Predict the structure of G2E3 ligase.
Amino acid sequence: VCGKNGAAITCSEKACDHNFHLPCAVEGCCVTQYYLQYRSFCCDHHPEQSAQVVPEANTNCIICMEPVEDQRSYSTMVCPVCKSAWFHRGCIQGTALHAGVGYFKCPLCREVIQFRNEMFHMGIRIPTR
């Protein structure tokens, strides 16, 4: 990602030789899954969201109220349950860090289990506090 030496994180995809530093992962659209095996994926192999929808024109992030991209991407995410709550990766990450695993849910439909599982899979870090 940054081109400097000492990158210790390797992509979990077999036969992929991409390495990156953990702090550089977000810049390079890498995903680190903070559960079970703590796997990391480079920008070429990171997981995609299960919901196959795209945002309507002029859709805003439900958290910061700023516009989201007009397509699903690394930085634009959607709730897999209601498929109406669109948000930036950074915004939902901040929400997860503040809420913790006990209170983290979709900001719109309030679904917990499927939403939380999808966010874990997509590399959103949700603390257990």
Remarks:
- The chain has two helices and six strands.
- Residues 48-128 form a domain with the Herpes Virus-1 fold (CATH 3.30.40).
- The beta strands are 9-10, 19-20, 31-32, 40-41, 76-78, 86-88.
- The mean pLDDT is 93.
